[in-house]
Write a structure and sequence with these properties.
The chain has about 80 residues and is of the alpha+beta class. The protein is built from one helix and four strands; from the N terminus they run αββββ. The protein is elongated.
Length: about 80
């Protein structure tokens, strides 16, 4: 379930700029950083997942920005 929320967070951050949610003690936050270097069709998103006070993961994801505009299509993560 946390993985699904993380994918949704990436998509919503691409569309809205920032998104966050929590689930059974896990907190997922994503924030759009802007276009990926050298490519306007891709965007960079900062993703962090924590459980309580412990950080589970922090990463930057480059995803296809065109999919963020389509409401029924999942983001393609590179």
């Amino acid at each position: 379930m946390v993985r699904s929320i993380a994918l949704l967070a990436i998509m919503e951050a691409q569309r809205q700029g920032r998104w966050g949610a929590s689930f059974h003690g896990f907190r997922v936050q994503a924030q759009r950083q802007g276009p990926a270097r050298g490519c306007a069709a891709l965007t960079e998103v900062s993703l962090s997942v924590s459980f309580g006070r412990a950080a589970v993961t922090r990463c930057r994801v480059i995803a296809n920005y065109a999919h963020a505009m389509e409401p029924n299509v999942w983001a393609t993560v590179i």
